[in-house]
Amino acid sequence: MNLSSKQRAYLKSLAANESPIMQIGKSNLTPEITDAVLEAFNNREIIKINVLKSSDADIMEMANSIADRTRSTLVQVIGRKIVLYKENKDNKVIELPR
Fold it and tell me: Is the predicted pLDDT of residue 34 greater than 80, yes or no?
């Protein structure tokens, strides 16, 4: 899903109030983490992930990989935090601006 700049800005403002729901450490991106992100998308549409300093992986590469594996949209990477969005068709909570 391609987001317009207005939609991306709206999602960033929503994510600013969210706390990270998971952390990725030195084990980097494992199938278990991908499964946990997919499970989290069952309950929410926007997810914030914290990448710990013990992880030596490239954060942008990791963010793109998670987005690809979960079929979600990368909203932003700021510092060591990743924000992802995936529309929940059954329980839509976030109404994106046009």
Answer: yes
